[in-house]
Structures are given as structure tokens and as C-alpha cells.
Amino acid sequence: MSPIAKGGSGLARALIGLCSVVAAVNVAAPASGAAAPVSVAAPASGAAAAVSVAAPARGAPAAARPAAPGGSAATAAWPSTWPALRPRASAATVAAGRISRPTWLSGVTITEYYSAPERWFNGRRVAVNGISGLHRIDWLFSARGVTMQGDGIGLDGRHYHVVNVGRGGWVGPLGQPASIGGTQPVFWRAGAFWRNARGQLTYPFDGGGWSNGVGLRYVPLFGSSFAPGMSLPLRPYHSLAVDPSMIPLGSRVYIPAYHGLGGGWFTAQDTGGAIDGAHVDVYRSPPARPDDARYLTRQRMLVVPPGQRAPAQAPSAPRAPSTSGSSTGSRGGGGAATGGSAPRG
Question: What is the pTM (predicted TM-score) of this model?
Fold first, then answer.
């Protein structure tokens, strides 16, 4: 995941670099009822590459994963070799500063993220700044795509990541301003889409047609750029995105709920704009479907800051975590809910 995005997400993804040169937008007036081609003129030499999209003629987003661990890790004795290890602390206990010695945390929220596969998306293919070829516009700019997750896997099987997410933040499903954690869900970056006759967000499908009526006016996204390859050398079920103001980057983190997936030990090597406080994001391989990502709450984890000694064997939490540690509501109840990856950028 790119450090700019995840969110994303990132690698601090929340820090958005702005390009010094932006592209000019030329939109031809549509013929009656139909959308005209939209082009973004190429900047002068040394500037960002052009984005061009031909509007459709007619008008009108892995393998199955193992069962969620859910937090039913087996209990074991407190590690006797760690006399300096203090008892578990709530998130509020350490919120005022970074963890400086091995510490158990309780009340942790755990979400998952992955490199977004372009095959899940159906938008028109466009050219963007920093990578060659054409790629689906919703894979690039929607809230389930690369500028949210930070990294993606193209139709060619190669990895790509976002370098700069562009200006303006996010908009909701109809194109209204929105923000992560706000009253309106985020749906798309604040540009790189069209507005229909009602002024609402729409985008063209790769096979023709539009997502929400014919697009009449293109809204540019200035400052966005991408690059080939992964943003960081992330490893599924071994890499973790954290809030570095609480958990130092480079920390070793043990999560009992993931003991059966990679041993439960992670390295804190990523960040994300939506990863705040006692919320960590587990990097994983893409699930079979976009909504098949775990969402665990009220979990415990052990944080071992850089320079501190980790035990040879993964310890268990002092008390067995709850077997019903997931949130309820739209994500469902039980050990792990499936509601998609967490917002990151």
C-alpha cells in the first residue's frame, strides 16, 4: 500500500503531495442526449501525462480465505521471561503517547486491506499520470480502488500504487462533498468523474453506457499520479498498518486472533489516514469478493517496539479474548463480520 493513500492507504497516505503542474480540461458540448468525447490536454514538456477518455456512444465495484479466527486464541501462561512486561492497557491509557516498551492493548479494532484487483471493476479504461497503458477509471479513483487502498493489481497481473491522490478529498455517491467517518459515505475522489443532467456523479462503463445517466460535464482531479510496483514490500498476514503516534513503525505486533494465519506476528510498516489510535489494518491477499474482509472489535494485541526483545514463541493474551468481538449492524455479528476493507485514505 502506498504511503500516501490507505487509505490510501499509504507511506503516510494521509499526506497528499500535490503536483506542480495540472492538466487543462477541454469538454465538447454533447449532442442531443448523447455524451461528447472528453479529453484532458497534455501539459507542456516535463509536466504530468494527459488523461483521455472517449465517452461511450450511448447513454443510459483470490482464492477463498480461511475461516475467520474471530479471537478464539488458546490461553497460555504469562511469559515468565518478560518481567518488565506490564499488564494489558486500554487504548485510552496510551493514547497520549507512543508505546515505548512491550505492552498489551485491549479494545483494539482490526480491519483488513489488500491490493485492489482491477478485475473487480467495470469502468472505462483511461490513461493516467505515471503508468503506461489504460486502466479502469473506477479502479483508479473510486473508494474501493487504488487511491483508497494505496495499491492495486492491474488486469495485466502487475502491481501499481498511488503516488499522489490528488486535491480535494472525497465525494459521496451523488458527487456531494464527503469525508471518511462523516455522515455521507465516501464513494469517489473529488474529481476524475462526470456530472449528469442533474449534477450528480456518473462515470462511463468499459462496455458502454454510464453508471448514473449520461455524463455532460467532466470534473478534473488535479495532482493525482501513480507508479508501477508496490508502494512498500508488504507481506500478506505479516504486514500491519498502524497509527504511528501510538505504535512506532518497525514494532512487532502479536494479535492472538490471527495466530492461525501466519503465526499472529506482524510488523508495523504501513500507515493510513483512517487508521487512528487503537485501530490496526492487516494486509492480506485479495479476498474472493470485495466484501470478504474481516472486521474485528474489542480485540487484544501485544506491541513490541523496535529495540525491544520479542519472545521466541508467540504468547497468548493474559485473558482469553471474547468470542463475539465483532461489531454488529451492517457488518453483522459473530466472530468476524464481512463488510469490506476499512477506509484508508
Answer: 0.65
